[in-house]
Amino acid sequence: MLNMDVEPSSNLCLSINPVESSHLDQILDIEQEAFSAPWTRVMFEAELVGNPFSRLYVATPIDDQGQPEDIAGYLCYWIVFEELRILNLAVCQPWRRQGIARRFVQFALYDAQTQGVERALLEVRASNTAAQSLYDGFGFREYGSRAAYYTDPAEDAILMRLEPIEFDDPF
Length: 171
Ligand SMILES: CC(C)(COP(=O)(O)OP(=O)(O)OC[C@H]1O[C@@H](n2cnc3c(N)ncnc32)[C@H](O)[C@@H]1OP(=O)(O)O)[C@@H](O)C(=O)NCCC(=O)NCCS
Known about the structure:
By secondary structure, the chain is of the alpha+beta class. The chain is built from 4 helices and 8 strands; from the N terminus they run ββααβββαβαββ. It starts with a strand and ends in a 9-residue tail after the last strand.
């Protein structure tokens, strides 16, 4: 498991650490705010304890006194042999547009790259242009779609892929 203290582009000091059970209440609050069809506690717990491929991390901003603030976001991905699959990523409203999601994606790509992973895959709602722009910035490209993949509301998924995994070392 990785642990990292990183500085996003805004000079925000951020600590990225593995999720613990005690984080789940805050994660669920962010999840329910961020998604119309949110993951449940049981789904997060399954990633945390029941899936050997799964990695779940939280980002905690560090204040001027060096103290951790509340959780600003989380990331869930799988490393399954030669593939990285990004499953869930959200940043709570007050912390958006400060580079936290970008740091999370860099973090996952770095983890994958150091393990010899060949490609990164993800699905995103067709209307989620913010997330598509985030991934596009790393070189992810659309390679297909899945009709009515999402519910609440029903919507197509855009399939995005980055292969090979190449990016500037951010750390
Ligand atoms: C998508 C999301 C994770 C972005 O988090 P964030 O920390 O605000 O993103 P960052 O500040 O790291 O932004 C990185 C890049 O993403 C893109 N981006 C992020 N928010 C955007 C927005 N509202 N509109 C357009 N582009 C956006 C931009 O390309 C941005 O780069 P820039 O700031 O240089 O323009 C956040 O908006 C969120 O949690 N949304 C709800 C959940 C979600 O959609 N998750 C993704 C599921 S695949």
